[in-house]
Structure formats: C-alpha cells, structure tokens
Specification:
By secondary structure, this protein is α/β, with parallel strands linked by helices. It has two domains: 215 residues, Medium-chain alcohol dehydrogenases, catalytic domain (Quinone Oxidoreductase, Chain A, domain 1, Alpha-Beta Complex); 132 residues, 3-Layer(aba) Sandwich (Rossmann fold), CATH 3.40.50. Helices cover 24% and strands 26% of the residues. Strand 14, helix 9 and strand 15 form a beta-alpha-beta unit. The longest helix has 14 residues. It is globular and about 60 Å long. The structure holds NADP nicotinamide-adenine-dinucleotide phosphate and zinc ion. Zinc ion binds next to loops.
Length: 352
C-alpha cells in the first residue's frame, strides 16, 4: 500500500478538500499511473452531492473522477500491454467479473459484477474505490486504455466518459451519412456528441437552452443549432429526426423531443437527472417512436473511440483548471458556464 494525494468530499454538503488516500501496490496484472489530467463530469457532482441515492448512495469520503489520463510509472510482473513511460487512460470502470456473457461480448458496462472507478466496493483494500481527482491510481491492465500520441492530453481526459458515453449510442443506433441526428444539451457530453455525429457523417442539429452556445455549436460541427426554448424554432424540425441523443443533466420536457422524431425514430437518454420525467404515450404511439437509454461503454469500444479520435484529431474542448478551483468549477458547471469540459491539471495537486 502507498499513499496518494487527492481531493475528496466528506459529505453531500461539504466542499471538496485536499486529503491523502491509500492505493494498493500493483499486483501482477496492475498498472500504476501518474495522473496528468482528470475531467470533471456532471456525474461527479451528482455523486458527490448524493443526488443518485435512489440508485446508489454515496459513501464518504468520496474521491470522484473517471476521466483519467496519465503516464505509466510501474507495471506488475504479468502486464503485457503497458510499460513505464507509456501514456494511458482510465474511464468509468476499473473491473468486472470477466466471465459473464456481457463481459465476453466486450460489454463490461452491463456486467452485474462491474466495479466503478469511484464509490464502488474495493475488493483490494476494503471500503470504496477512489477516482481520479488524485495524483496516482492503480488499475488492472484490462481496464487501462491506450492513448493516441498525437492528441492534447487535457482534451483527451474527457473522452473517457463524455466521449464514450456519446460514441457508444451513436454507433449502436447506426448513426451514419444520410441520418438526421439531434444532440440535446451542449455541455461536456453534448459537445462530444456533436463532434462524433458530424465525424460519422450525419446531418447534425444541436439543441441548447443557452443562446450564447448557438454559434459555437456550429463551430463544433453542427449543421444547425436550435434554441430549445423557442417553440417556433422547435416546430420547424417536427417529425424529422432519425435519432436524438439527450445529454441533459436536469429535468426537462422529453415530449418536446419525441415530437421531433420521424416514424420509427429513437430518442436515447444519456443524461441522468435526479428526478423522473413524465412521458405522453401518444407521442410514442402515433409515430411508432422509441425512447431508450445508454450507459457509458465497454472497454473494446472505448479503445475504438480513442483510436477514432487519434485518426480524426478529435478531443474535447476544455478549460484547464488547477484542482484548487474544483468547487468553483462545480458551481459553474451547474450554470452551464463551461466550454465545454473542465479538465484538472493534476500537477496542481503538488501545491495542495
Ligand atoms: P454538463 O456539462 O453540465 O452538460 C449538461 C447540459 O445540459 C448543460 O450544458 C446544458 O446545455 C443542459 N442543461 C442543464 N440544465 C438544463 C435544464 N434545466 N434544462 C435543459 N437543459 C439543461 O453535464 P455532462 O457532464 O455533459 O453530463 C450530462 C448528464 O449526463 C449528467 O446527468 C450526467 O450525470 C450524465 N452522464 C451519464 C452517463 C451515462 O453513462 N449515461 C455518463 C456520463 C454522464 P445547454 O446549455 O446547451 O442547454
Ligand atoms: Zn462521467
């Protein structure tokens, strides 16, 4: 066991503060990383504030962070994929049972024995797993990803959650050239959804509540941008979308987006608001439309997404901050005041 510096929350109402945590010594299959950047996902905020208690209560102290990129410092004796000095990344999962049909199919995100990067039982040290708001982490190599060498690392970190969570449903629902695709909520996830849908060849429409993001959405790759609070703008797109990806973190009217789907179109939720939404049956019935959800992504498709990003030069648009600004960053994220992801420069932890 060794100690790592970290930022943790002591309760649902406490700000994040500096702390020291225990990490395991690498076992034969483990890789130890020095964390260089960690993105701030809205799920970190939901968890720190225990907003998902109906699904899983938060155990305190909580060290969030599942958008991790770093450099390998040590490897266990049986590790074959990595050597000290390599760039590497860790996302939302650090383990799974590896034997169930989901794991065998590369869908670790559906494994009943999956272990999340933070706030999950830690079979090695007891207690719960601790995430990436830290200067180091030890993870089984099977859950460590290779990072293309041509990309800006601060912008790579958010690919590990915001990237894969939008990539996976776009691929699953066959987004490609000739499809009309909507992305709702232009935050960390949404801006990656726009970039990916465009790169996959779709006609992309961004939906935002922030008029100030309209121009930017076009720069990110959208062909059109709609201010969703403007009913006239929304009506123009009635019954026209093959697929809409909803990344919104707070309650909002889903029926307005169901109405925009063409026959047999699908609205997929990746945003996970604290409270449930009301859905009108006729919106679905009359167009034989579907509504669905999608969690993060499996390890093989996360590597596929990272390789695609390397090939196409895609990273997240980030505002790099020192870890000391994390509480301020949470408040700004709640106000949709970030373009489009905070990425914590972990070198700042040395000063903590
Ligand atoms: P984020 O950066 O805060 O973006 C959320 C966006 O939603 C905001 O930028 C804003 O976009 C829009 N929005 C916020 N409040 C709204 C409201 N009241 N009404 C309408 N739109 C609103 O968050 P994120 O990190 O992208 O995460 C988004 C959601 O996905 C969170 O709930 C997060 O927990 C969830 N998530 C799910 C998974 C999964 O596996 N399914 C993985 C990661 C995250 P505009 O300013 O453009 O309107
Ligand atoms: Zn996340």
């Amino acid at each position: 066991m060794f100690h790592a510096k970290a930022y943790s929350a002591a309760s649902a109402t406490a700000p994040l503060a500096p702390t020291t945590i225990a990490r395991r010594e690498p076992t034969p299959h483990d890789v130890q990383l020095e964390i260089l950047f960690c993105g701030i996902c809205h799920s970190d905020l939901h968890t720190v504030r225990n907003e998902w208690s109906s699904l899983m209560s938060t155990v305190y102290p909580c060290v969030p962070g599942h958008e991790i990129v770093g450099r390998v410092t040590r490897v266990g004796s049986a590790v074959t994929k990595f050597a000290p000095g390599d760039l590497a990344a860790v996302g939302c999962l650090v383990d799974s049972d590896r034997t169930c049909p989901e794991c065998k199919a590369g869908f670790e995100q559906f494994c009943p024995g999956q272990v999340l990067t933070y706030n999950a039982p830690d079979k090695h040290l007891g207690g719960v797993t601790y995430g990436g708001y830290s200067d180091g982490i030890v993870v089984d190599e099977r859950f460590v990803l290779r990072v293309p060498s041509n990309l800006d690392l601060a912008g790579v970190a958010p690919l590990l959650c915001a990237g894969i969570t939008t990539w996976s449903p776009l691929r699953h629902w066959g987004v490609t050239k000739g499809k009309k695709v909507g992305v709702v909520g232009i935050g960390g996830l949404g801006h990656m959804g726009v970039k990916f849908a465009r790169a996959l060849g779709a006609h992309v429409v961004a939906f935002t509540t922030s008029p100030s993001k309209k121009e930017d959405a076009l720069r990110l790759g959208a062909h059109e941008a709609v201010v969703s609070r403007n009913a006239d703008e929304m009506r123009k797109h009635a019954a026209s979308f093959d697929f809409i990806l909803d990344t919104v973190s707070a309650e909002h009217d889903l029926n307005a987006y169901v109405q925009l789907l063409r026959r047999d179109g699908t609205l997929t939720l990746v945003g996970a608001p604290e409270r449930p939404s009301a859905l009108a049956a006729f919106g679905l019935i009359l167009g034989r439309r579907s509504i669905s959800g999608s969690p993060i992504g499996g390890i093989p498709e996360t590597q596929e997404m990272l390789d695609f990003c390397g090939k196409h030069g895609i990273t997240a648009d980030v505002e790099v901050i020192p870890v000391q600004k994390v509480n301020e960053a949470y408040e700004r994220m709640l106000r949709s005041d970030v373009k489009y992801r905070f990425s914590i420069d972990m070198a700042s932890l040395k000063a903590a």
